[in-house]
Design a protein that fits this description.
By secondary structure, the protein is an alpha+beta fold. The chain has one domain: Fumarylacetoacetase-like, C-terminal domain (Fumarylacetoacetate hydrolase, domain 2), CATH 3.90.850.10. It is built from 4 helices and 15 strands. A hairpin with a 2-residue loop joins strand 10 and strand 11. The longest helix is centred in the C-terminal third of the chain and has 11 residues. Bound molecules: zinc ion.
C-alpha cells in the first residue's frame, strides 16, 4: 500500500507558504510505515523542532488502475475520510532550499494520520466541508470546492505516473491555516460535523 499526497492544491495555502502556484498537481509519496490509525497518539520525532499539522481529505482506492481517464476516476474510490499530513517544516525548508526531495520531512514514521473511512455515497465529494481543531479551537477549515485540482483530476493525473492499487490512499492537499503542534495538544478532524479522528500529541 502506498500513500500519494498532493501538495499546493489550495491557493490560500500556497500563498501562506510563499510557494509558486503550480500548473499541475505537486505529488509526493509516503511509505506505508507512515500510517497512524485508530486514534493513536503522535510522538514528535527528535529530528524536528517544528512539526506542522495539515488536515486533508483522504480517499481510499478500491481497484487497480493505470492512466485512469478523469471521467471514470469516481469509479475508483468508494470511501473517504480526513487525515493529517504531518510535516517537519524546518526540515522541509532546508531540503527545499537545497532543491532536495522532501521525503524525510513528509514520509517519516506515523506522519500520516488516517481517520475512520465513511462511504462517499450520498456525499458530494466536490463540495465537502472539513476542519481541524487543536485543543478545541478550529485551526484549519476548508471545502473541497476550493481545490485547484479536483479529486477526480488528481486520480487521473497521479495514475499516469503511479499505478493505483486497491487500498492505496490519496491525501488531496491542505487548506490554509497550517501550524505547529506541541506536546500535549489534542487534534480532532471533522468531515462536515462528523468527527473522524482524534490525535494526542506526545
Ligand atoms: Zn499536505
Amino acid at each position: 500500500m502506498k500513500i500519494v499526497c498532493i501538495g499546493r492544491n489550495y491557493a490560500a495555502h500556497v500563498r501562506e507558504l510563499n510557494n509558486a502556484m503550480p500548473d499541475e498537481p505537486v505529488i509526493f509519496i509516503k511509505p506505508d510505515s507512515a500510517v497512524l490509525r485508530n486514534n493513536a497518539p503522535f510522538f514528535i520525532p527528535e529530528f524536528t523542532q517544528d512539526v506542522h499539522h495539515e488536515i486533508e481529505v483522504v480517499v481510499k482506492i478500491k481497484k487497480n488502475g493505470k492512466s485512469i481517464p478523469v471521467q471514470f476516476a469516481a469509479d475508483y474510490y468508494d470511501e473517504i475520510t480526513v487525515g493529517i499530513d504531518f510535516t517537519a517544516r524546518d526540515l522541509q525548508s532546508k531540503l527545499k532550499e537545497k532543491g532536495l526531495p522532501w521525503e524525510k520531512a513528509k514520509g517519516f514514521d506515523h506522519s500520516a494520520v488516517i481517520g475512520k473511512f465513511i462511504p462517499k455515497a450520498g456525499l458530494n465529494i466536490h463540495q465537502l466541508d472539513f476542519h481541524l481543531t487543536k485543543n478545541g479551537d478550529v485551526v484549519q477549515q476548508g471545502n473541497t470546492e476550493m481545490m485547484m485540482h479536483s479529486v477526480d483530476e488528481v486520480i487521473a493525473h497521479v495514475s499516469q505516473y503511479f499505478m493505483l492499487k486497491t487500498g492505496d490512499l490519496i491525501f488531496t492537499g491542505t487548506p490554509e491555516g497550517v501550524g505547529p503542534v506541541a506536546f500535549g495538544d489534542e487534534l480532532k478532524g471533522f468531515l462536515g460535523d462528523t468527527q473522524l479522528f482524534r490525535c494526542a500529541v506526545r
